[in-house]
Design a protein that fits this description.
Number of strands of chain A: 20
CATH superfamily of the largest domain in chain B: ACT domain
CATH class of the largest domain in chain B: Alpha Beta
Number of helices of chain A: 24
CATH topology of the largest domain in chain A: Rossmann fold
CATH class of the largest domain in chain A: Alpha Beta
Helix content of chain B: 25-40%
Oligomer: heterodimer
CATH architecture of the largest domain in chain A: 3-Layer(aba) Sandwich
Strand content of chain B: 35-45%
Number of domains of chain A: 3
Helix content of chain A: 25-40%
Order of helices and strands of chain B: EHEEHEEHEEHEE
Number of domains of chain B: 2
Largest sheet of chain A: 6 strands, parallel
CATH superfamily of the largest domain in chain A: Thiamin diphosphate (ThDP)-binding fold, Pyr/PP domains
Largest sheet of chain B: 5 strands, antiparallel
Structural class of chain B: alpha+beta
Shape of chain B: elongated
Radius of gyration of chain B: 19 Å
Distance between the termini of chain A: 79 Å
């Protein structure tokens, strides 16, 4: 009855005003969802939308390639916890978003991608700039939809934001034909979203929590593996309380970094392929592993049959499909990480594992951070280590993918939630620069460092122009070793040093920076590192530093792909590590 | 590895089958048969799915299917007391010499029907569990099968318990 009255009133209100252009309704619906920032690029099928966009309190950031828009929206979402929005035209505009959408899907990032589409009467006619973007993005979106009439605009946009941010977050794509943008109608008032096929479990079963607590109580060598779910659910405080009360050390997945303070005595840091030796050994020796908000990705487990051979597994995740996907799980807990930890805390009395913690500490070997190698050449690890120290560990750090990413993951110790932004699942080179831009626009007060390689930066360096336009407080640190370094490392270790197509040239980055009106410097000697970083920090706004580093430095420790802890190569075992 | 029969209730909306089939392809699930049709509830379609795999693989398939937004309910009916039916149309070579043999085989043993006849061919319509259809095909094959069309299996558990959501339809 109440609902009925409400609807009638809303309908009456609507009809007192003139019908509105679909494009305006789209903007109104976005404003209603709290959107004040869009990364986009205009084109034929979104001209009506761009025509009215300036009327609304939404800041539009004009990127230089739609991939940049998707990554920037992703970086914005990860830095703020809000839904990131990107906008592109039909055809190539839409397909250029694909890499960014897939990146967000793999890393569970809330993203709404809006694409224009050719008018409905020519859909299916191979019209100019027509592409089946909903067909293309089925496997890489949480959901996607076509808005077929002006009446659907309100409910569709509401549903898209609800789906993007709720449950296990992810990207949602909305395809809007041009004729819908040009049709006139009314914005339906917001309704409670009712999706019979979508009921994510937020609060876990108490019985499963009790079983988990019981298993943890029995454990002599327990270990927590914390993932991105900690950050998504905002569970850092609860995780710290839990780890302290039960005295359980915490290993972090790549995307779990910053979810548990690196400086905490129970923090073991990164686990997995390039994780710390003591952290991976702890997994190997553990008798109970509690995975929270993570998915036992192959970069964490290596060969699953030999992963954590002595451990019984408790797995807490909001996505039931992740539980039991890779490992046999003794206690499955479906639910939000924060809710699960809250319940677990209620069931958990203080425990002690002094001996176990001491044993793990005795395995610790620091990552080497010497300023230079045998030939006096600048070492990349030193650069990251100095960056960490000089920024007091307080910067937001984004990365590309490869060696520099692993050094940053090992050495930039993160204590503040969401200060670490990196493409984990998809491993997208070119992510770092646009993601830094998005993070900076979402958190203007923050100092943002894009730590990137000379390979990845060349994939999206056109976004320097956008960063300069927006005067983002983004400092780009290019770790230039003249190679696609991670592939080169694999070629060295597993393919007889056959450096096939991995040496890669770079432009003169200082000149390039100048061309983009971005202050830029080059560093080649260890003695210049601190001064250059301090220079970049001495002013607000974009800056670029190229660090020319040791070309054949490798990332250690390393567990070869599909291998087990027993096959770990540490710097002390590696032939190239003896200096 | 054994055959599982799953009944999947989905919202009848554009693109649903596309999403489901895309999921099978992407994750490498092997589907033996798939049949789709309307249900007793308007707006709801029923997919009967036969897939082979160990329990873990099937569990993953079910969990991944549940992530498709329009999927409402999945029931593994493999271990139920099950009625399984499939329909096949078989166009087989038939000369004057073989015609009566085929007809006898089809009607007496398999209770199938001849639904069309031409001077050198016949079309057989057969309904039943997939094993029955397999066995008829094996017997008919020596005569020369020109064309074969199968619907895929639909299944329903015996007894009064129903795979459905919401209120049962009230019969006046």
């Amino acid at each position: 009855m109440a609902v009925e009255t409400q609807t009638r009133r809303a309908t009456t209100e609507q009809h007192q005003t003139e019908p509105q252009l679909g494009a305006r309704l789209i903007c109104q619906a976005l404003v209603r969802e709290g959107v004040d920032l869009i990364f986009g690029y205009p084109g034929g099928a979104v001209i009506p939308l761009y025509d009215v966009l300036p009327e609304f309190p939404i800041h539009h950031v004009l990127v230089r390639h739609e991939q940049g828009a998707a990554h920037a929206a992703d970086g914005y979402a990860r830095a703020t916890g809000k839904v990131g929005v990107c906008l592109a035209t039909s055809g190539p505009g839409a397909t250029n978003l694909v890499t960014g959408i897939a990146t967000a899907m793999m890393d569970s990032v809330p993203l709404v991608a809006i694409t224009g589409q050719v008018p409905q009467h020519v859909i299916g006619m191979d019209a100019f700039q027509e592409t089946d973007i909903t067909g293309i993005t089925i496997p890489i979106t949480k959901y996607n939809m076509v808005i077929r009439s002006v009446d659907e605009i309100g409910p569709a946009i509401q549903k898209a934001f609800y789906l993007a941010r709720s449950g296990r977050p992810g990207p949602v794509l909305i395809d809007i034909p041009k004729d819908v943008q040009l049709a006139k109608g009314y914005l339906a008032p917001p309704q409670p979203v009712n999706l019979p096929g979508y009921r994510p479990t937020i609060v876990p079963h108490r019985r499963q929590i009790r079983r988990a607590a019981e298993l943890i109580r029995q454990a002599k060598r327990p270990l927590v593996l914390a993932g991105h779910g900690i950050l998504i659910s905002g569970a850092t405080e609860e995780l710290v309380k839990f780890a302290e009360r039960a005295q359980i050390p915490v290993g972090l997945t790549l995307l779990g970094i910053s979810g548990f303070p690196a400086s905490h005595p129970l923090c073991l840091g990164l686990v997995g392929m390039h994780g710390f030796a003591h952290a991976n050994r702890a997994i190997h020796e553990a008798d109970v592993i509690v995975g929270i908000g993570m998915r036992f990705d192959d970069r964490v487990t290596g060969r699953p049959s030999e992963f954590a051979p002595n451990a019984r597994i408790v797995h807490i995740d909001i996505d039931p499909a992740e539980i039991g996907k890779v490992l046999k799980t003794e206690v499955p807990v479906v639910g939000d990480a924060r809710e699960a930890l809250k319940l677990l805390l209620e069931e958990m009395e203080p425990l002690r594992h002094d001996e176990w913690i001491e044993t793990i500490r005795s395995w610790y070997r620091p990552i080497r951070t010497a300023p230079s190698g045998p030939n006096g050449v600048l070492q990349p690890q030193y650069v990251v280590d100095r960056l960490h120290k000089l920024t007091e560990g307080k910067a937001i750090v984004t990365t590309d993918v490869g060696q520099h990413q692993m050094w940053a993951a090992q050495l930039y110790k993160c204590d503040i939630p969401n200060q670490w932004i990196s493409s984990g699942g998809l491993g997208t080179m070119g992510f770092g620069v646009p993601a830094a831009m998005g993070a900076s626009l979402g958190r203007p007060e923050a100092e943002v460092w894009a730590v990137v390689g000379d390979g990845g930066v060349q994939m999206t360096l056109h976004e320097f122009a956008t960063i300069v336009d927006e005067q983002c407080n983004v400092k780009v640190a290019i770790i230039n070793n003249g190679y696609l370094g991670m592939v080169r490392q694999w070629q060295q270790l597993f393919h007889n040093r056959n450096y096939s197509e991995t040496p890669i040239s770079s432009p003169d980055y200082v000149l390039l920076g100048q061309a983009y009106r971005m202050p830029a410097r080059r560093v080649t000697r260890p003695a210049e590192v601190d001064e250059a970083i301090q220079w970049a920090r001495s002013f607000r706004g974009p800056a670029l530093i190229e660090f020319v580093v040791n070309q054949e430095e490798n990332v250690y420790p390393m567990i070869p792909s599909g291998g087990s802890f027993r096959e770990m190569i540490d710097v002390h075992d590696a032939q190239d590590g003896e200096w | 590895m054994r055959s599982h029969t799953l009944v999947v209730l989905v919202e009848d909306k554009p693109g649903v089958m596309n999403r489901i089939v895309s999921l099978f392809r992407q994750r490498g699930f092997n589907i033996d048969s798939i049949a789709v049709g309307h249900t007793e509830t308007p707006g709801l379609s029923r997919i009967t799915l036969v897939a082979k795999g160990d329990d873990r693989k099937i569990e993953q398939l079910v969990k991944q299917l549940y992530k498709v937004l329009e999927v409402i309910k999945i029931t593994d009916v493999t271990d139920e007391n099950l009625i399984q039916r499939e329909l096949a149309l078989i166009k087989v070579n038939a000369t004057e010499r073989t015609r009566s043999d085929i007809m006898r085989l089809v009607s007496d043993v398999y209770r199938a029907r001849i639904v069309d006849a031409a001077p050198d061919a016949m079309v057989i319509e057969v309904t039943g569990p997939p094993e029955k259809i397999e066995s008829l095909i094996t017997l008919i094959r020596p005569y020369g099968i020109k064309e074969l069309a199968r619907t895929g299996v639909v299944a329903m558990a015996r007894g009064s318990r129903a795979v459905a959501i919401g209120q049962p339809e009230v019969v006046a």
